[in-house]
Structure formats: structure tokens, C-alpha cells
């Protein structure tokens, strides 16, 4: 349904710039800042330039917080218009949703020289506000209605407006996802009330801020996936239904295409006979609240660090749709995430990050409001376990089948890989799963069949122990890097007597200098990697992944699995994983739910289950990420 790129004015003139389009605004921003703070002689003439620059920044911030609020599952779940089934295709299509802000900023800057008097407007004039409202209601609204209807006919819809309607489940970003021609027309409609007030001699700076920001908020509100307008106001003031549209009202326009064309005021749909007959019923049903569907599987994750906060779908969904990596341009907007960070720290509970389906299994990803470094603070252990325990008990009460623990949430020193909760609540119906069995299986099955010796770091961890015990039975000599003789001997004790000779304790990285198969379960620095001989293959199950600093070795991928092809609704990349791939422990928990296994997977890995889990994963349609 995407608009044809060959139609005149369908594509944006700066499309070829890609993400470099933002440099268009740099000369204007520089001029405004210079004139207002370093050269008073030009302050009056360039005051307008500064206001436009500031207004654009406020508009970006407004859209950011609106999008964040829209994805707060705990707030919107009861009244959301449709279940979140956003796809990567929609995210890619809406990636440049903000083109209209750049366009309107440039046009406003041009108006600085075209229209006299714009440089010396007063800050306040209440008449201007009144004129803007009148012009909007009597001029912009009816014009928009008829132009919008025209864009739904034949040629205009196919070549222009179909791009906007390709997003069947609208979100805040859908607001700006339209063609260049459409936004030119819409910019003209926005300008009419402002020019009208200016002609009447009542324009002011505050009027421009008020109208443009109000317009943005109302447009975002219409694309909001939650019916938040209180029913009590409609009951008290019935005529409001003709003056204020709602998200459910606009959602019917996206689903039916031939009704509810209004901008913000349904009165014009009423007069034009284009109001959808189910408008009232849908609104009433959504305000009563929908019964939340209980997921069969929950993956309980956590945020790695402050920078990765912006890689969550409820902060920057476009960034979350790509593998995480350091990006210099993320530092300036980091301040936007500070309020959510402190809110999560002070009042946070586990929150829904995303939802998706695999076959008939409804999966949900939740995050606890703590960052990676919190897990290593002595005083943080109790609170983190409290969050995890609360999530487990809530899942148990709700009827969730499986709850899987991610990365540090199952740390041995924290809760023994989930054993703490199993011992405390012996009658849990929800199955606690750490998913490490599949992680171990992934590492084992990516080793070369002819490997006779491996150098293993993190060798006494849950996964490291399982790898050592499994490989030694296969006749592989395992060089176990550990300084603890006691922990090494505990692993050896669990191996069959005839294979114990294959487990060798080493205490320095130099011991791996002749071994070309390294399995990394603990972060290693550059000096540690230097001991590996050329041609070494680094297999790894450590998060974050090992820094790739050498050219003469091969770095394996983190242990991950491609989800079965029948998955839908997934619209985020799990940390550094590409699209459609999740960490093996995540896949292991999901596999538990798909197979309907009725046991907890906690504590130490059962070596006997590794092959069973691997075969089950392949049977369910998972594929190794290599």
C-alpha cells in the first residue's frame, strides 16, 4: 500500500540525505544562537529564527513523551484500541515521521522574510488566540475535511495517501507518516489561522507556540492507541462529541477508509454524512475496558545500562528495531530519558516491554526497573529479588504458564538461578525457567565436530560447568580457567570417573596459547585475547559480547536462536541481536512453553537434557544464530 515514489511530490526532497537531513537546520540554528547571544545588532531580525528553532525542539520532545506514554502497558492496557501488533515493516515505513517538522520549520523561516512584522511580534495578545480558534474551526476544519476526502479517491489515494493508511494500527509516529505533497497541503491549512490572526493585527509569539503545539497534541491524540477521553465529560456535555474526536473515532478511519474524515471536529463528518455507524459503540466498549489477555510465557529482562535505555521500544522504537550499538548521536537526547530513569528507580515495577506471538503462544517481554550495575551493588540484591519475586507471584496468580529469567536476573549469587523462589514457594503453578540448557546446547552445536581441546573461561558458572561436563564425556579435553580449586573439583566430581582426566584446571590465559577453540563465558580484555593463537574461534555466551579487536581470529555470535517463522508482533531487537533473533535463554523459556513441559528449569543444568532440548528447539522451528 506504500505510495508510489514516481508520483510528483510524493517523496521528500531530502530523502537522499537519509539521517543527514538534520544538518539542514544547523545553519539556521547557528544564525539564531549567534544573533541572540553574541551579536545584539541582529537580535531583532533573527529573533524569529530562534523561536522557530526552539519550537521545533519542543515539538520533538512532545512527540517523544507521547510515544513513551503510549507504550506504558500498565497505563493503556485496559482501554487500548487494538493489541500491539506493530511490525518491522511499519517501523521502517515510519522511520522518517519527523520530516514534516523540518518542512514546517523551513517554511516558517522563509516567512520571516516574506511577511513583514514577524520579527517584532509581542509575546502576548489574547485576541490572537481567539482569532486562531475561530479561523481553525470555521476555515481549516472544513477545508481539511473536503481535501481529506479528495485524497481518498483513486489517483490521490494510490499515489499519496495510501502511505499513511499502510499503518493499520496507528501510533504516535504515524501522525507524520505522509507524503511531501500531503504535508505541503497540511502546512498551508495550519498557516491559515495564523495568517488570519496576523492580518487582523492580533498575532503574538505565544499564539504561534499555542496553536502549533496544540495542533501536534491533537494529531497525536487521534493516533493514540488508547481511548483516554473520560466518558463522564461526554455525558455532562453531549455536544462535545461533535467538537472533540477520540482515538477510537480516528481508528475507524484507518480501518474502514471511507468514514470519519474530520481533522479534530466530528461535526463535519456529521454534516457530511460520513460518520462511522459504530463510532459510539466502539468508544463505549473501550471505555468500559477490555479484559487483558493473559500471556502463556513471560521473559523477565532488565536494562543493561543508561545508554541501552534508549534501545527499548517504549523510549525510541526505531532504535529498538536495530541491533544495539554505540552511537554518538544518542548522547544529546540522553537527557530525555533521565525523568523516566528516576521514575523507574523510585516507583518502578516490572513493566511490559513488548508482546509477540509464536504459534498459539502469547509471549510477553517484561523488564525490571534496574540497570546492570545495580546487580553488583551489595545493597541492591534484596530489592532486585523483590522485583523478580513480585513478577513471579503476579504471573502465578494470573495463570501464566512459564516465566523465564534473563541474564543477571538469574545470577547465581543473586538467587541461584531461580532456586531461591522455588524453595520459598513450593506450590507455584508457573514454571520458572533460566533457559541456560538451550544456551549450552547452542554453544555445543556450533563447535567443530573435530575439536579435541577447548579453552573455557567462566568454567564453573552454570553454563560453563554444563559445557565442561558434556564435552569431557565426548572425549574433548577442557582447559578450565579458574582460580578456585574447590569449584574446579566440584565440577570434576560430577563427571564420570573415566572422563575426569579430560577436565584440566588452568589459572592463566597463557594456558590457551596453543588452543584454537576458545569458549568465552566471562568478559576478557585485549591483553587476555592476545594469548589466543592466530586462527582461533571465539565461541561466547557472555553479555555484553567480546570486543572484536583482532583481525586474525574469528569471533562467534552470542548464543542466540532465530524464532520460528510463524512469529508475529515482534518489533524490537534484543540487545545486539538482529531482527527475529533472541538470546538462547529467551528462546529456551519460550521452548518450555511451546513444548508444555511441566517442570522448573532452575539451578544447575541437567546434562542429560541438553540434547533433548536442542532437538525440541529444531522441531519447533527455532534455528541457530550463526
Question: Could you name the key traits of this structure?
Answer:
626 residues; alpha/beta; 3 domains; six-stranded mixed beta sheet; six-stranded parallel beta sheet; disordered N terminus; Sterol_Desaturase_Related
Write the layout of secondary structure elements.
Layout: H1 26-37, H2 43-70, H3 73-76, H4 88-93, H5 99-114, H6 126-150, H7 154-165, H8 180-199, H9 205-222, H10 231-236, H11 247-256, H12 267-272, H13 279-288, E1 297-303, H14 306-309, H15 317-320, H16 338-347, E2 351-358, E3 361-371, H17 381-398, E4 402-405, H18 412-415, H19 419-424, E5 431-433, H20 436-446, E6 453-456, H21 462-473, E7 477-481, H22 485-493, E8 503-506, E9 517-520, H23 526-529, E10 537-540, E11 554-558, E12 560-562, E13 567-568, E14 581-583, H24 584-595, H25 610-619, E15 623-624
Helix pairs in contact: 1-2, 2-5, 2-9, 5-8, 6-8, 6-9, 20-21, 20-24, 20-25
GO cellular component, one term: membrane
Subcellular location: Membrane
Membrane topology: Multi-pass membrane protein
Amino acid at each position: 500500500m506504500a505510495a508510489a515514489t514516481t508520483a510528483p511530490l510524493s517523496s521528500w526532497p531530502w530523502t537522499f540525505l537519509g539521517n543527514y537531513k538534520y544538518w539542514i537546520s544547523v545553519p539556521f540554528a547557528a544564525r539564531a544562537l549567534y544573533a541572540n547571544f553574541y551579536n545584539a545588532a541582529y537580535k531583532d531580525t533573527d529573533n524569529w529564527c530562534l523561536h522557530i528553532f526552539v519550537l521545533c525542539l519542543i515539538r520533538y520532545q512532545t512527540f517523544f513523551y507521547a510515544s513513551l506514554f503510549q507504550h506504558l502497558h500498565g497505563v493503556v492496557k485496559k482501554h487500548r484500541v487494538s493489541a500491539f501488533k506493530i511490525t518491522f515493516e511499519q517501523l521502517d515505513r515510519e522511520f522518517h515521521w519527523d520530516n514534516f517538522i523540518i518542512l514546517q520549520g523551513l517554511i516558517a523561516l522563509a516567512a520571516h522574510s516574506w511577511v513583514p512584522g514577524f520579527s517584532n511580534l509581542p509575546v502576548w495578545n489574547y485576541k490572537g488566540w481567539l482569532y486562531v480558534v475561530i479561523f481553525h474551526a470555521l476555515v481549516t476544519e472544513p477545508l481539511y475535511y473536503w481535501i481529506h476526502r479528495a485524497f481518498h479517491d483513486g489517483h490521490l489515494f494510490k499515489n499519496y495517501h495510501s502511505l499513511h493508511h499502510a499503518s493499520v494500527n496507528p501510533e504516535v509516529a504515524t501522525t507524520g507518516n505522509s507524503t511531501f505533497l500531503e504535508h505541503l497541503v497540511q502546512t498551508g491549512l495550519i498557516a491559515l489561522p495564523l495568517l488570519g490572526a496576523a492580518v487582523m493585527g492580533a498575532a503574538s509569539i505565544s499564539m504561534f507556540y499555542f496553536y502549533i503545539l496544540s495542533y501536534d497534541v491533537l494529531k497525536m491524540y487521534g493516533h493514540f492507541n488508547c481511548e483516554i477521553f473520560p466518558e463522564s465529560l461526554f455525558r455532562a456535555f453531549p455536544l462535545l462529541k461533535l467538537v472533540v474526536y477520540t482515538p477510537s473515532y480516528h481508528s475507524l478511519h484507518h480501518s474502514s477508509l471511507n468514514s470519519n474524515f474530520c481533522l479534530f471536529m466530528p461535526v463535519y463528518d456529521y454534516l457530511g454524512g460520513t460518520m462511522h455507524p459504530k463510532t459510539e459503540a466502539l468508544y463505549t466498549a473501550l471505555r468500559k475496558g477490555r479484559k487483558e489477555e493473559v500471556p502463556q510465557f513471560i521473559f523477565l529482562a532488565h536494562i543493561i545500562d543508561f545508554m541501552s535505555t534508549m534501545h527499548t521500544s517504549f523510549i525510541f522504537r526505531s532504535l529498538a528495531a536495530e541491533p544495539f550499538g554505540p552511537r554518538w548521536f544518542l548522547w544529546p537526547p540522553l537527557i530525555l530519558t533521565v525523568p523516566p530513569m528516576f521514575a523507574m528507580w523510585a516507583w518502578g515495577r516490572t513493566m511490559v516491554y513488548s508482546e509477540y506471538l509464536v504459534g498459539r503462544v502469547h509471549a510477553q517481554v517484561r523488564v525490571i526497573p534496574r540497570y546492570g550495575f545495580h546487580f553488583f551493588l551489595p545493597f541492591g540484591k534484596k530489592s532486585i529479588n523483590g522485583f523478580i519475586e513480585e513478577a513471579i507471584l503476579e504471573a502465578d496468580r494470573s495463570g501464566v504458564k512459564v516465566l523465564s529469567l534473563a541474564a543477571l536476573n538469574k545470577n547465581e549469587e543473586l538467587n541461584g538461578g531461580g532456586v531461591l523462589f522455588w524453595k520459598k514457594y513450593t506450590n507455584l503453578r508457573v514454571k520458572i525457567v533460566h533457559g541456560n540448557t538451550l544456551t549450552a546446547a547452542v554453544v555445543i552445536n556450533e563447535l567443530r565436530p573435530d575439536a579435541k581441546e577447548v579453552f573455557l573461561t567462566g568454567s564453573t558458572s552454570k553454563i560453563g560447568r554444563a559445557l565442561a561436563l558434556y564435552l569431557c564425556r565426548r572425549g574433548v579435553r577442557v582447559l578450565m580457567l579458574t582460580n578456585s580449586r574447590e569449584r574446579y573439583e566440584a565440577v570434576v566430581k560430577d563427571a564420570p570417573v573415566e572422563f575426569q582426566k579430560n577436565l584440566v584446571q588452568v589459572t592463566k590465559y597463557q594456558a590457551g596459547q596453543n588452543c584454537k577453540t576458545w569458549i568465552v563465558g566471562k568478559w576478557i580484555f585485549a591483553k587476555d585475547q592476545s594469548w589466543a593463537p592466530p586462527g582461533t574461534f571465539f565461541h561466547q555466551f557472555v553479555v555484553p559480547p567480546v570486543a572484536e579487536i583482532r583481525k586474525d581470529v574469528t569471533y562467534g555470535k552470542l548464543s542466540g536462536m532465530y524464532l520460528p517463522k510463524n512469529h508475529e508482533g515482534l518489533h524490537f531487537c534484543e540487545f545486539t541481536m538482529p531482527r527475529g533473533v533472541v538470546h538462547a535463554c529467551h528462546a529456551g523459556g519460550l521452548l518450555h512453553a511451546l513444548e508444555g513441559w511441566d517442570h522448573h528449569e532452575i539451578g544447575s543444568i541437567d546434562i542429560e537434557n541438553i540434547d533433548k532440548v536442542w532437538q525440541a528447539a529444531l522441531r519447533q522451528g527455532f534455528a541457530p544464530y550463526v
